[in-house]
Structures are given as structure tokens and as C-alpha cells.
Amino acid sequence: MRVLILGGTREARELAHIATGERGFEIVSSLAGRVRAPLLPEGAVRIGGFGGAEGLRVWLAANDVTAMVDATHPFAAGISANAAAAARMSGVPLVHLRRPGWVRQAGDRWIRVPDLAAAASQTAAIGERVFLTIGRQGVDAFAGLTRQWFLIRAIDPPEGALPPRHELLLARGPYAFEDESRLLIQHRIDVLVTKDSGGDQTEAKLVAARTARIPVVVIDRPPLPEGAQVVESAAQALDWLRERPIRRD
After folding, report:
1. What does the alpha-carbon distance between residue 53 and residue 85 come to, in Å, rounded to a whole number?
2. Distances (CA, A) of 18 to 70, 72, 188, 238, 239
3. Angle ∠(156,18,55) on CA atoms, nearest 5
4. pLDDT of residue 37
5. Comparing C-alpha atoms, which of 249, 246, 122 is closest to residue 192?
6. How confident is the model over 3-21, as pLDDT tens digits?
7. pLDDT at 23
8. pLDDT-derived band of residue 39, with 50, 70 and 90 as boundaries?
9. Residue with the larger pLDDT of the pair 168 and 33
10. Whether 5 contacts 30, CB under 8 Å
């Protein structure tokens, strides 16, 4: 049973690890190649795009893929849409592996917004010193905010326009609560901006903001394709794969 994992997340690496050790599975993980030094999963890996939904459909057929798991980042809407379209065209079963989003806790001062533009608008209204933790993509949405100062954290340097007043911090999680609290204090942060990525790798910043009573602008996830089948963990994805019929040529 040949399985394509569209990866790049911790859950994708966990699934590759446990499924590679399962008899009867041949696992291929695909990474988009947007991070310069990605953490590689166990087993076979391909890096780079497919050329849209049609390119993915052709690749699935050429490589005799039995099932596909979309375990990309919750904000990788384009890849998820292409996966759903390719699955429909090819008849290859598809499941979306998505870690649960974060849940607001007592003491949180969250402002939920639907997209980056709304996040920039809210940030301009409530903050002077901003901790921007949305990754390297989308930072240009804040480039027009000339009054605020930004601490921008990402794994790789952002591309495109940046806010004129900023400091760039290149780092990869997980992050500890003590370190996040220290950053807020040292840089006199008065608003945090984040995507609702979920998971415990970067959740400490939310706890630090809650403790410091700092408002958090939380960008909602884009919706998954209509009719998407979803699991929330690598273990659930493996159970789904085990339920697929094994094709015997």
C-alpha cells in the first residue's frame, strides 16, 4: 500500500515514523520546500511542488499511490485544495490530518480575525510594540504600519516588504514559557499576533501573553475543502490507513 503524506508538520513526521514501521505500507512524504533546512521525516522524501491539482493527479497515477494524507500546516489552504481536487479526479482516498486549534482560556484577551488584512487593521488600533509570530509568509500585510515597532519571529527570513520599524528573530520551536515571557518583557511587547496553528510547540507564547495580560490577535484558520474527511492525530490517520482496502494487482 503506497501512501503519499503531504507533510511539513510534526504530525506528518509522526505519521511517517509509525507508518513506516507498519508491514504492508510504503510511505512517501512530500515537502513543499519553503523552509531552507526542513526537519525530514523517516522514509522516502520528495521536495517541491507538483504543479497544481492536475500535476498532483498525474503524480499519484504515475507512482501508483493507494491513499493520500494531507498533513500540511493548517494555513496551507492552497495545498489542501489541490489535494482534494486531485483526490476527486484520481479516486485516491484522502484524509486531512489537522491538529486541533487553540482554545481560549480564562484570562485570555483574544481578538479573533478572519485573515491577515484584518489582523493588521486590529494591530494598528491596539498596539505600539508588536510580537508578530505568523511565520515568514504574510508579513507584508503589516508593511504599511509605520507607527508600530515589530519583533518578527520566523524560521527563515520573510520575503517581500517588511514594516519599517522591526527586528527580525530567526528561531524554530518548541518555545518555553520562561523564554516567551522574557521576550515580552525585554521588548516591551503590548500586543501579540499569531495564527491559530494549534499544538503545543508554540503555545507557550499564549500562556505568556495571558500571564502578562497582553491582548492577542488570533487569525482564524482557512476552511478545509467541502466534504473533507478529517482526523486530529497521527494515530487516527494510521487507523484510517489501516481501514483502506489493500489493492492486489
Report:
1. 6
2. 16, 17, 43, 8, 11
3. 60
4. 73
5. 122
6. 999 998 999 999 999 998 7
7. 85
8. confident
9. 168
10. yes
DSSP letters along the chain, please? -EEEEE--SHHHHHHHHHHHTSTT-EEEEEE---SSSPPPPSSEEEES--SHHHHHHHHHHHTT--EEEE---TT-HHHHHHHHHHHHHH---EEEE-PPPP---TT--EEEESSHHHHHHHHHHH-SEEEEES-STTGGGGTT--SSEEEEEESS---S---SSEEEEE--S---HHHHHHHHHHTT--EEEEE---SSSSTHHHHHHHHHT--EEEEPPPPPPTT--EESSHHHHHHHHHTSPPP--
User: Is the Cβ–Cβ distance between 38 and 67 less than 8 Å?
Assistant: no
How many residues belong to the chain?
A: 249
Cell of 85: 481536487
Q: How far is the first Cα of the chain from the last one, in angstroms, to the nearest whole number?
A: 11
Percent residues over pLDDT 90 in the chain: 86
Predicted pLDDT at 21: 79
Confidence band of 249 (pLDDT split at 50, 70, 90): very low
Q: Is residue 191 pLDDT above 60, yes or no? A: yes
Give me the phi and psi of 240, to 5 degrees please.
-60, -45
Specify the amino acid at residue 151: L
Cα 232 → chain centroid: 13
Query: What are the pLDDT digits (tens) for 94-134?
Result: 999 999 999 999 999 999 999 999 999 999 999 999 999 99
